[in-house]
Write a structure and sequence with these properties.
Helix content is 9%, strand content 30%. It contains three helices and 20 strands. Strand 16 and strand 17 form a beta hairpin. The longest helix is centred in the N-terminal third of the chain and has 11 residues. The protein is elongated, with a radius of gyration of 20 Å.
Amino acid sequence: MTDHALSVVRAGALTTVQDLGRPGHAHLGVPRSGALDPPAAALANRLVGNPVDAAVLETTLSGCTVRPRSAVLVAATGAPCRVTVDGRPVAWGAPVRVAAGALLDVGPATAGVRTYVAVSGGVAVEPVLGSRSTDLLSGLGPPPLADGAVLPLGRPARPHARVDVAPQPAPPAELVLRVTLGPRADWFSPDAVRVLTSRPYRVSPASNRIGLRTEGPVLGRAITRELPSEGMVLGAVQVPPDGRPVVFLADHPTTGGYPVIAVVRTPDLPAAAQAPPGTPIRFVAVGRR
């Protein structure tokens, strides 16, 4: 076993390996996947000298604990959290050197949902269809981390950033999602479109990497017959039979049989990845994407 690896001591509630995903395979039924907050993942990589598409760890709410088998640089970005090395506090949002055998603990998020942990050289699990991302829907890529797992690391190739702390956007107090109406807005009553763009919603605890589920007003249908399955895109706002919109995120299915009332603009989706349950949501109708 190589000594250039990470041993997982505490996997946390849900920690996965993510890079920029595997777009371009929807015709094969393969979701895009990848980091839900790409800017945060890219920043973590830049801080340790990795290419922005190197694989990182994406934690969910509770963080994780790992032990490198050789000296590495690490950086944690995204959801703020307490980071320690052998129990001593170190910087969040900056490169930190971790000695071989030291215990790196990425604590629970103090705000937001997902923290990204980059390690110099990147996580070097075997790629599938050009990506090392874990896809919870299809099962492609490495499984979510488990206690005792060992993750191989690549070799560092670039100097790391020399900063005290990198500025990052705060997790949203209110999630504002700009949407383009359609393609199936005509399947809903005129009142439903008005409700979507004028009434408040909240992030549901049932949200995950597949979709951000909402709590709030029900959207009534004008056309109630079955819709043949059709292609789904990142950010699609699908309305299932309970009438409450679901915003599709990176692990979304490539086809679906419920109507899509609108599509969220891609630049707004990283904030959706960091919105904890209960966060207010406001859908704002805009023009073409």
